[in-house]
Amino acid sequence: MSAEPTNEEVERLRSKLDREAKAGGYSLSNDIDFVNDLVKGLIANERRYGYQACPCRLASGKKDEDLDMICPCDYRDPDLGEYGSCYCALYVTQEILDGKRMLESIPDRRPPPEERTAAMKDIAGKTISGKGGAMTDLRYPVWRCKVCGYLCARDEPPEVCPVCKAKKDRFERFI
What we know:
Layout: H1 7-23, E1 27-28, H2 32-49, H3 63-66, H4 76-83, E2 91-92, H5 94-97, H6 113-123, E3 127-130, E4 133-136, E5 142-145, E6 151-153, E7 171-173
Antiparallel strand pairs: 1-2, 3-4, 5-6, 5-7
C-alpha cells in the first residue's frame, strides 16, 4: 500500500482545489485540518483506484460506475445551492464562511447502484433535438454561458462561469 501523502502533496492538491473552487464561485471549508484530511482521502483514492473518488462515499473501484462521485462530484453544485455546502463539506459558499448560514446535515443525493444503472439504461439510445441537432437524451438540462460559450449539464447553471467568471444570470438553457 502507498505511504501517507506528504505535506507537499496535500498542499499542492489543496491549492489546486481551492483555485478551482474560487473559479466556480465557491470556497473550501476554512477548517484546514478537516480539508487536509479530505485531501488525503482524495490522494489515497487516486492511488488506490486511479481517480479521485470523493472520500465521503464508498467507491466501487470501477471508474465508469463512479464517474458521478469523482471530486468535485456531480452533487456538489446542487448541494451548495440548497445547503451552502457539499455533502462532505469540503466546498462551501461565502454565506457559510461569513457565518450567515450554519452547516447542516445534507442528505446524500447519490442514488443507489440499481437506480443509477436503470437511469443509464433508460437514457441510452434516446435522442432529442437541441440547437446543434440531434443529441443523446441527457439526465440534466444543458446550460450555455452567453459570454464565452461554456456548456455544463446540471439542474441549474453555476453561480459563476468557471471560464469567464460571468454570473449565473448570463447563462441560458441550451438543451
